[in-house]
Give the backbone structure.
Amino acid sequence: MNVPRSFGRRLHVAMGERGPFCAGIDPHPGLLTAWGLDDDVAGLERFSRTAVEALGDTVALLKPQSAFFERHGSRGVAVLERVIADAKGTGALVLLDVKRGDIGSTMQAYADAYCDPRSPLCADAVTVSPYLGFGSLRPVLDTARAHGNGVFVLALTSNPEGPEVQHARRPDGRTVAATVLDHVRAANAAVLAGDEPLGSVGVVVGATTGGTGEDLAVGGPLLAPGIGAQGATVDDLATVFGAALPQVVPSASREVLGAGPDPQALRDAARRTIDAVRDLLFRASTRA
């Protein structure tokens, strides 16, 4: 039996070759309008496949947001399937942003949909929510690992409602977010004891969260949405992530997609962010 290369290893290579950056594909109605497209399935497909064609050979990760496809019903999901297939064909890794969280057989069904290559919705990695208890994620973690795929677990999100759960204190005084980070660190520990350069279980930490006071070094990648339109700058990453900065994959959607529909303008917008992140990493390494 051939064991597939782990997501962590593939992402490590892609970040080295293309730079640490994730471009979101969010076919928001406002962006469709800005591109001169109708808010229908045809507009959805034109927008999404243009973004893949323009960015797929430039960025390490492409991140379609499933909700913007699902809002168009079964025909929208069919477009998402084509977008995933197209994106994989460009050499970029695909992170499907679905933020699923459930228990038992239902969570296994999500795992089969997003982590098993037999499904047309299978991506290289998927986002999940741990707030039904980290153990509820076991079907996704196990299925992803069996197929060499990755999982990004919500930990410290940038939405204003997040802190009421994530910053809540357990009886031992530690935050709920810290517990999630501990679980992810443990999930990566056994793998990293071998020769893997990066674990395949990452976390989502908003670039707008400021200094969190948490230990963000979990052995896996740190997805940092919020660059650009949501208010964070590349330089803010140093404040949020500190010593864990080399594992960070900043993510932006509107900051890049707003440059469309011209493909070259989309590529240029992505490359500006990649160059800025590389410059930040260089400056951080020279200060170390």
Observations:
- The mean pLDDT is 95.
- The radius of gyration is 18 Å.
